[in-house]
Fold these 2 entries.
Entry 1:
Amino acid sequence: MFINAIQIGMADYKVAKTPEKLATIGLGSCVAICVYDFENKTGGLAHVMLPDSTIAKEVKNPAKFADTAVPMLLDEMGKLGSLRRNIHIKIAGGAHMFSFKTRENVLNIGARNVEIIERICKQEGINIIAKDVGGNCGRSVLFDLATGIVYVKTINQGVAEI
Amino acid sequence: MKIEDLNSTQLDVLKEIGNIGSGHAATALSQLLLDKIEMTVPNVKILPLEEVSNYLGGAEELVVGIYMKVFGDAPGKLMYIFKNGDAQKLVNMVADSNLLEMEHYQDYEQSVLEEISNIMTGAYLNALTKLTNLTMLSSVPAYSCDMAGAIINSALLDLGMLGEYALLIETRFSTTTQQLDGDFFLIPDPGALEVILEALGVE
């Protein structure tokens, strides 16, 4: 099902129109941000790695960070003619792949990624209408621009729709 | 020190560190399995973060990963990657019986692989400690059986990740009798490279 889709790598993004499908595979703590314009049936997907771009000296690639990827995707959607009120977001990923048995669980990047995306979306006034995040399993995502449905595949639970 | 600025002498030294460390780790594994272990000459790879999982194989391939942190003077991360079937072979070799049919097999697998990683890592870091006089200690191991991309990227990333590149000192090992391969990585933090090189008197 992922074969005829536009593949998006880590720290990368694409925007496209129906009937395209966007896909990204092997998300661990990374998060797929799926932006959808339900009027124009256009959408964008970014595969973000880290929560906060302010730690970097310069941000060469806005798709790498959660806080810069959301505004960038919204800009790109604007260029495709989308109105903010027609846009919603779905997210998947942000798992915690390795849990140590000791107390040392301090740096949970997955949860931080999700938290920052939620905060930025709130600031931008965009609704996150569905999410499949957290837990300890890897995910692959297929985003169908004809319907806006996001298919989330995991090794143990098969394919879920959000 | 920026990873992408390392010169060839410095890379050779890091390769030699991998060589010494994994030689000891292979000996430890060999004693554990009572089998001959073959090991490749270590490979030092400098890759953009987003390309690491592609380099290591398909992002969606099912693998077993064991992840440990290195603390002390030269901090970093350690990672073992086995293809799913190879992880099971290794567990059966250590147990000297077929555990696959047992109830709670996954628990045995996790426990056995974590212990193997502990033993190999101990040997690896001990060798480096003797060589450099630096303190290097490992955390308890953490196990995950999932998509390769998800495992590798999650192990690689941490919140303080400033650089664009990762440096991996990679060794592949295999057992001859069972056709079993494993991949072992030492991923020094960028700050640790300077400490290691300095300890060995390399400018």
Entry 2:
Amino acid sequence: MIRPTLAIGAVAAAALALAACGSSTSKGSKEVAVTLTDSGCTPQHIAVAAGPVTFKISNGGTSKVSEMELKNASGVILGESENVVEGIEGKFSLNLAPGKYVVNCPTGDAEDQGTVVASGKATAAAHGASAALLARATDAYRRYVLSEVALLRAGTARFAEALQAGEVQRAKELYGPVRTHYEAIEPVAESFGNLDPEIDARVNDVEKLSEWSGFHRIEKALWEQNSTRGTEPYARKLLRDVETLQSKVKTIALQPAQLANGAVELMNEVSNSKITGEEDRYSHTDLSDFQANLDGSREAFKLLVPALFQTGNAALARTIEARFAAVQQGLDAYRRDTPLGFALYGELTKADREAFAREVGKLDEPLSTVAAKVSGA
Amino acid sequence: MRRLVVVPMLLALLAQTPLTAVASATGGRATPPQRELDGTRALLGVLAQTYRAADPTHEATGAARVRTMALALEGQLARWQAQGTAPAQGATSAQGAAPEQLAAALTEAHSLRRSLAASADRLQPWPLPLDVRASTERVGAELKRAGLGGAPRARPYAEIDALLADARKASADDASARGSDGGGTPDAAISASEAFALYATGPGRRLRVSDPGLAGAIDDAFWREGIASAGTHARSEIDTAATVLGDRTIGKDTVVADAAVIVFREGLEAVLILAAITASFVGARRKLRRPVLLGALLGLGATAVTYVLAQALVDALGDGGLRLQAITGVLAIAVLLLVTNWFFHRVYWSEWLGRFHRRRRALEKIDRWGFLSGQLVGFTLLGLTSVYREGFETVLFLQNLQVSAGSGATALGVAIGLAATFAVGFVTFKLERKLPYRKMLIATGVLIGLVLAVMVGTTVHSLQGLGWVPSTPTGFTLALWWGQWLGVYATWEGIGAQLAALLVVYGSYALARALQGRRYRRVARELPAEPVRG
């Protein structure tokens, strides 16, 4: 789970999303600096001209608040930056249509504290070859998401059957592989409010155990108790939630910057959070999650490559591709001939974890510049 | 990564003190000082909260603080265990902690500390926040069962001050013992961690909302140089926070100065009255000085008793909130107006002194009638009443300072004022030298006028905080120190009241001088001359 939520949401803004491509310093580009504080974020109310905007987020508090989300009027997350703590900044870019947006810097006590008002005319729609390439990218990514969600639903149904049948070993073997279809498209799921926590909350994320459900609740039972007892209600709910997800993603609309933001957030999540081994704390199947995150991120990037080439960013595209390959090479060392396909997390040494985080960090750096290029910011 | 010098030192302390041995220790029952109890209970909550905030991103700074807090918690419990057999000085005895529960709390705290060690490496699983919270709750439950339960006050400034003082003392003791600069000791880290916890669960919670910048500065003051060094950095920032939050309407430096001025002024008056009474006790009657001075000492004692009673009354009224500040503030202003009412003061001075002279002469007659014991009692009472009257005024006034800024600053001011008074008394009675009393009276009068203006400003500020006085912003802003040092806040009501007070005091002085200048100077001139002749 990317905590608490990430972006790639459906949005009306998508109508004007296919922004003019070009340099990140193109005329009219805007940057908005936002500082996270312990009581939310500042400035709370932001006025900005409609069009490409890059939000740069830093932490000026004690890291009690570590993320910022930008939502549309329907509550769908358009962009976000998380794991922003002292010394680690975040950013995301969007092409904002005129209108009012909600800023959420969750403190635990308060949410949706701020607003962004984008005024003026919408940026002219992208035109020419790059516009067509970006439109193809978003369509293709949407198909990828639908395909992964279909596989997730099918896999979850098998997983639930195994649980209901009391087949512990089969359920354990299915757990990791089924989750990969969720991990690959997690940013999309996270844009739908509480759906992600219902499906993928870690035990760390909940205040009370009674509020906990989803994959990891079942994981705890399977590996700690070595039993399926008591998991049936969770299995039924999980399947219902996945079906809801499937119905929601069918209506999704995307803008190119969201693909790039999502790709970055997936890798940030790996380097800042999943590398700790807490995602699959009980089963230690984290490495297959890493692979799924990498696949999902790489797929989103790959679809944007033609537009990057078209707009004079070929060198950037090649650099990113090389760094994806380096991360993949590091991960390939842990492939195993098991149902999961990977070693368990415990095989990673401290040096391995640090090296892996370093490689992912190297990838993040250029990858985080893509959103601004494809949104025109 | 911030420097946390205390961590290895605490570990060293704990290594030297096998916890299993400590946990099995039983012995005497000593209840720890209240500030330590409050600080430890606050530490439990802050530790769990800080860990909850640090865990999602495996944030290193927060985690390091949590580990330090866990060390401090375990260190404190171990210290209490050790004090169970040899109670520390200052600990109140009577009902003490049950050793079994304290040992259980210590075992749990030890386990918590060990589990949190994992958080030193960001790239590995950390303990669950749920488990950390449960562990702190278990420690809290054991402490409660041990008779060490309860909740800290909402405005625990006095306890924070005391704990920071403990931290400074521990650092100084360590530096003295090692012949080095100390750099923070385990004991200092424990006290400072508890001070931080009391701040964070009390004023800090409100400050983070009302003034995040100051809250950040206080965080830095506690943690930048390592918690064990916080004793020297955090205190003034906490004072500022108290003022910003309206918990304290006056700065500590101002309180020290105010207390010193009022004690010296009243002390000076008492010395002059005593000097006037004893001026004619020369030659064979010199022995009559003794009962007067004995009475003066008794007057001081009676003043001290009154102070204790007043404190008990104030304590019974609440924990130092704005309401109490406002009430005692109004009382203090009344006292100051009495002291600084120059026009009235001229009459008071001459009539009051005339009364003493009449009483003295009456008592001298008793001597002629041969009732020596009656005379002794009479002169003793004369000395007592002449000092106690000034002492009573002072006690009333000091209550407001005590409520506003705690006992430390007030006591320091009182000590300075008393020292100056005793110096004047020594020169007057022992060396029998003439001092420029008139100038001293005028100088202290001017200072008291300023004290009154500050007191009026802070009291109006308190009354505005309660909604008892309207608050109209001036339209211009004032730096924080205007409020802390001078009691000047940017409202027309506050500034207007201060100007009115100054006008009343200095206006009455000018009027008194204009109308009765010659007579006043003559009276003032008469007073100090007599003892010198004796």
